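Re: the multi-chain job from yesterday

Posting the exact lines I submitted so nobody has to dig through the queue logs.
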Amino acid sequence: MKNIVNFLFEVGILKKIPRSGYQFLGTGGESIADHSFRVAIIAYLLAKREPEADAQKAVLMSLFHDLPEARTGDHNYVNKRYVVVNEDKAVEDLAHSISFGGEIASLIHEFNSGQSVEARLARDADQLDFILELKRQQDLGNGSAAEWLTYSVKRLGSAFAKRLADEILKTDSSEWWFTKKEELWVNG
Amino acid sequence: MKNIVNFLFEVGILKKIPRSGYQFLGTGGESIADHSFRVAIIAYLLAKREPEADAQKAVLMSLFHDLPEARTGDHNYVNKRYVVVNEDKAVEDLAHSISFGGEIASLIHEFNSGQSVEARLARDADQLDFILELKRQQDLGNGSAAEWLTYSVKRLGSAFAKRLADEILKTDSSEWWFTKKEELWVNG
Amino acid sequence: MKNIVNFLFEVGILKKIPRSGYQFLGTGGESIADHSFRVAIIAYLLAKREPEADAQKAVLMSLFHDLPEARTGDHNYVNKRYVVVNEDKAVEDLAHSISFGGEIASLIHEFNSGQSVEARLARDADQLDFILELKRQQDLGNGSAAEWLTYSVKRLGSAFAKRLADEILKTDSSEWWFTKKEELWVNG
Amino acid sequence: MKNIVNFLFEVGILKKIPRSGYQFLGTGGESIADHSFRVAIIAYLLAKREPEADAQKAVLMSLFHDLPEARTGDHNYVNKRYVVVNEDKAVEDLAHSISFGGEIASLIHEFNSGQSVEARLARDADQLDFILELKRQQDLGNGSAAEWLTYSVKRLGSAFAKRLADEILKTDSSEWWFTKKEELWVNG
Amino acid sequence: MKNIVNFLFEVGILKKIPRSGYQFLGTGGESIADHSFRVAIIAYLLAKREPEADAQKAVLMSLFHDLPEARTGDHNYVNKRYVVVNEDKAVEDLAHSISFGGEIASLIHEFNSGQSVEARLARDADQLDFILELKRQQDLGNGSAAEWLTYSVKRLGSAFAKRLADEILKTDSSEWWFTKKEELWVNG
Amino acid sequence: MKNIVNFLFEVGILKKIPRSGYQFLGTGGESIADHSFRVAIIAYLLAKREPEADAQKAVLMSLFHDLPEARTGDHNYVNKRYVVVNEDKAVEDLAHSISFGGEIASLIHEFNSGQSVEARLARDADQLDFILELKRQQDLGNGSAAEWLTYSVKRLGSAFAKRLADEILKTDSSEWWFTKKEELWVNG
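And the result, structure tokens for all chains:
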């Protein structure tokens, strides 16, 4: 039981670790937990469209894909040029003493190898979450975001993911709630 | 496609809405996305132990359970005494224009009614995530957390959840990484 | 005496509750206390121009108008479409055990009904404070602020308030201190 | 009109200037606007008890008392040993071009001289607001707050203010909302 | 020994005092410690180019130049119009009980008088650090930064510092890491 | 010239990278720039006591010792168990195109090898800065800090550093300014 508790406190630190790319982007920010949350939902959405994909597996994979960062820290694209992360060891240490640890380790390795249908979906979901954040920052006035977006969209794998990215780039991040119903906004 | 993009920007605002209970607790804090992330992992863990539970459903339910708060806002226990939230309307508005909206709405309603095995697991997971946060704040010096914990543990439903809570209350939140290997800490 | 102390701690939580509209605006932010502070000063200013207005009453009304939010939470325009707030109950609970509670409750109700001269002034002051914040964010680069401003100015009631809003939209938010006296800026 | 707008943007910067004492206290924090907000409410409360006090004047005085800090900055008790602030000049500059500037200047000077009934009430209110914050931080675990409180209560002038301070020191800052009604907390 | 410890805790508060100019700029921010850190590095760089400059002295001077602000607070250009700071007293109080206090005091006075080669270099370094921050904020979308930059560059003394400032204004603040190697960004 | 500008923007990111150990400690926080600032001052202080030490070199070494983290990121003691950082490559990349790059690289390598007098002083200064922060957090109520301190003091090398640490552990972090002169605190 203590193993489970320790594991849950470990998962909790992902709420406190900021994703380091934002230090370079200059505006915005989120925790690893924030990120994984929406990656899981995007993965679900992508998987629902693919008959051969196991949607639930893609969701779990997305929830777990950054779990090792509780131990290794979060590395952005600049950091990665200088650092070698022993993720296998981190995965082993986090998973070895809990009963479902093997399943978690397996899903993380599958995500990293990027071969299976679900892994490719989850990796696209990982990128799309960042593309949505970059678009948001662009809408809020950060002129650098445009260049980051150019590179980010190139990392996408599937055709659908790319079309979704095109649509993201054309959609104002406030559109979902800013319905142009003047009556609501003046008298509400 | 635009509907999906708008939905994803909507999901993104959950990363920016702070859970309001912390204003009253006085220390700590997290976003709704942070919270839902670990609730989903706890639900997975609880469901793996219950043969009759659909673990994957419990995970999805946990990911979606606070989605309506993107529209309604987050209400803590004090707020709830004064506010009536039309969650059904929020669920409908968020879900109506996306193809998988029916599934999301259904899972949220199931969570709220708290009847099914998965709903009961997810509701315990919801509480356990907060219990873990309260314990963390207690470890960091917030003397109020003790009283909050007393009430929080009473909201738990299953026997296993209660035993897990007992173990949480006896475990230092740093134990998972603070291995007492002096060599590491002095020479590392 | 304890009632007074509890009331004052309750008032204090307004310093810790962020105004939720900024989650949607994307930049900026303020507490309910921050907001009420300047609303009171704006109301004073508006009332001084209106011979029939009781300036002091307008100031008190502005200071108290969001007091119930210590219990109900702060709801932005999106939230308000999905939530019914029992403000009367909140007002009653906050006011019942202090001697001047009746006066506070009366002022809040008067503000909400928006009928009296002072109430209309205070409601305009409420809007103008937000218009000033939106203009500030616009000056700092948030392109969304323009659209929000369009709707916000339409909520104003009096002719003077609208003219003041026009002037706000034409004034750089730094002008009050950025006197173009080069000598000061180079040698100061 | 522009003078009024510039004045209002100037008032707005008080929402962005943190009260510097908290850098030394180590926990907590608030803006000058946050502080003035509750000082005004406390002054109202103190004045209602004193038949010879003009409650409305005490409220206005409290709202304006730190207005010059938009230009001078906020100085804590350590800073004050090393700095001479030309507050008269700041008051003059902020007030000279608005029609009600004379009234504001007059109230600030009255507050600073601390002679009149209202000035003494407002100065006690100024201290009481900080005492409430120190008590809050003490409740949250900051052991330094006790010593700060010892000195703060000695700055109070009136007998009622001192009795109020005694009551503050004996009241848990969460008591106003943490009603021990288990039913609410378990089933709410 | 205690004097040294007290001195080091005093130095530590510079990490907690925000540089107040950013309240007026509206975006960005840094502590006095952050600022002094890069000023020291810039001073080193400027001094290495000047044969007659004592590079090490310029570095120490830069590290110490804002030490008195631990006691006096940080004053921006608006504050300085209204405040007289007794920096000598602050320097004396901070330095009197430590053995190397005389050296610190001497360096601070030298910096303030701005006469020596090193003092002039350090003062340019002080400005250049802020110019770099303003450029960063400009790149991130703050349109006000342009005007601040106009005045800031005029405060520079040496020809080299002015040329360096010209180059800063033409360089994107992300250029140092955003190498346009598409391979890195797409496959990294 | 552009190389220098790029180098200075690179140095600037150290103001934005939080030192990751605080995510685990739970309270407090500082940037790499904040940290390096006081490490440099502590190194100066330690070197002044050692006749054979080049104080100026120790200061520069301290200022530069974490420069590579602009590229590699900051790794705490947990991260270091899982990550191999190619610091030499980071040092090379940051230094290769500026004229004084060789000196910076040399000082960083000297610090890392920990052999020279100055390197040992600077490494002790690195630890002492963290010990001061841990003591501060302990004073503010974080009960975990005690255990961290136990291990941190063991990493110190010189006898003087250890005695300084003992004194730190016995000194209240507020003592430097909280002079018990009641007159100041009541009437100031």
